[in-house]
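#struct-help
A.M.: can someone run this one for me? Single chain, 161 residues.
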Amino acid sequence: MMNSKLQPEKKINSYRTAQKQLEALLENETDTILKMATINAVLKQNLPYIYWVGFYIANQHNKLSIGPYQGTVACMHIDYGKGVCGSVALSKKTKIVKDVTVLVEGEDHITCDPNSKSEIVVPVFNKNKQLIAVLDIDSEEFSAFDEIDQNFLEKILSIFQ
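D.P.: on it. Structure tokens below:
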């Protein structure tokens, strides 16, 4: 596997490019699914360490259901509180996992694809500050995500507010 991690300056520049593309593509756009699909494509295109990117949509039954994504087949439903995505749905706070292999399978992590080594999950809120989804991003590399990813992703996802 090739190391596709970016140095901080290059990572920041890649996110700035992604932000500009998203601002141009989604200006005045109101369709939530279209926004999600476009964000996935732009992030995967600009950040080479992203292996899988997608949204899990919150529903009224304390479950997340797969929404738009790019990558291998994903878990279809995740209960709130289960795995990284489910814990973010409950806490409503971004979570960075440097090594998913050390987490307890089925409780702290749900392995949908064994190639995933690290991940970041970011809550997505609507204009009423209600959770509408979580953005899940996986990498085949350990420690791929950091505060740079968190800051840019949280800013990008404010488009739903």
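A.M.: thanks! The two ends are 38 Å apart (CA to CA).
D.P.: also worth noting: The CA atoms of residues 37 and 68 lie 5 Å apart.
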